Amino acid sequence: MEIVIICLAAFFTAVLTFFSGFGLGTILAPVFAIFFPIDIAIALTGVVHFSNNIFKIALVGKNSDKTVLLRFGIPAILSSFAGAWLLMKITVLPTLLQYELWGRTFEVTPVKLIIAILLIVFSLLEISPSFQKVQFGKDKLIWGGLLSGFFGGLSGIQGAIRSAFLIKSGLSKEVYIATGVVIACLVDFTRLSVYASRFISSTLHENLTLLISATLAAIAGAYFGKRLLKKVTFRSIQLVVAVMLILISIALGAGLI
Questions:
Q1: DSSP code of residue 93
Q2: Nearest-5° Cα angle at 151, 126 to 95
Q3: 126 close to 161: Cβ distance less than 8 angstroms
Q4: Which helix (H) or strand (E) holds 91?
Q5: Predicted confidence band of residue 220 (pLDDT cuts 50, 70, 90)
Q6: What does the pLDDT read at residue 84?
Q7: Given this model, what pLDDT does residue 219 score?
Q8: 147, pLDDT greater than 70
Q9: Any residues with CB less than 8 A from the CB of 58 and at least 6 apart, and which?
Q10: What is the 3-state secondary structure (H, E, C) of 22-82?
Q11: Which of 67-81, 192-206, 239-253 is most confident?
């Protein structure tokens, strides 16, 4: 059952987030968290996210802006190390709250609460009319890279900040999508190198079928999204993703998932 649920989530989320440039990791991580500890869920999501972005590079990567890649991507890679290192530290912190509901025991942990808060903040930013009017020049790309990389390493959430900076940098829709994909791959590769020790200790080899299935589902979703590129607007996708993230973050922060 977990394979079906995760694969469906990976496919439909990959379709939705192909256009917005963010959201696959932030939606898929909580779905994985239903079946795995949150830090392992983030690591698994990183693998699917990275594999999906490699495929998207093959589809649209030639349109990326090299100048933006350097100004945004290098700071993002450096700061993602710090975020991934912090994740490894906070996952060992004691549980904040434990309660029983429907005959089950639920726990609110520091890492779940932090990620839930981040999800809500980024979701509200995306649907805020005032935030849509904010303009970021190319001289601000370094700061955007630092923030995006750090939160990408900490929680897999990097796309909302990355999109906020890139979409305001005068790039065309095609260049915006391609540049975001390449930057996301760079950050994913960095944080996965930090998560590697957690893979070894968690016997994830027993879940290779699940991981491969989710990756293939996400790739299929990206391919379908590419075919729909000219028919979908950024704003409609942002609204759908934001609502989904708010619902998931509430459940995650409450310890329900």
A1: S
A2: 105
A3: no
A4: none
A5: very high
A6: 80
A7: 92
A8: yes
A9: none
A10: CCHHHHHHHHHHCCCCHHHHHHHHHHHHHHHHHHHHHHHHHHCCHHHHHHHHHHHHHHHHH
A11: 67-81
Angstrom distance (rounded) from CA 237 to CA 41: 24
| Contact residues for 97 (Cβ-Cβ < 8 A; gap 6+) | 107, 108, 255
22: left (phi over 0), alpha (psi -120 to 50) or beta: beta
What confidence tens digit (pLDDT) does each residue in 229-239 have?
777 676 666 66
Residue 11 has a pLDDT of: 92
Predicted pLDDT of residue 62:
85
Angstrom CA distances, 51 to 29, 44, 45, 190, stand at 15, 11, 10, 14
What's phi and psi for 216, nearest 5 deg?
Answer: -65, -35
CA–CA separation, 19 and 63 (whole Å): 15
Question: What are the φ/ψ torsions at residue 102 (nearest 5 degrees)?
Answer: 55, 35
- Closest of 18, 19, 152, 138 to residue 68, by C-alpha: 138
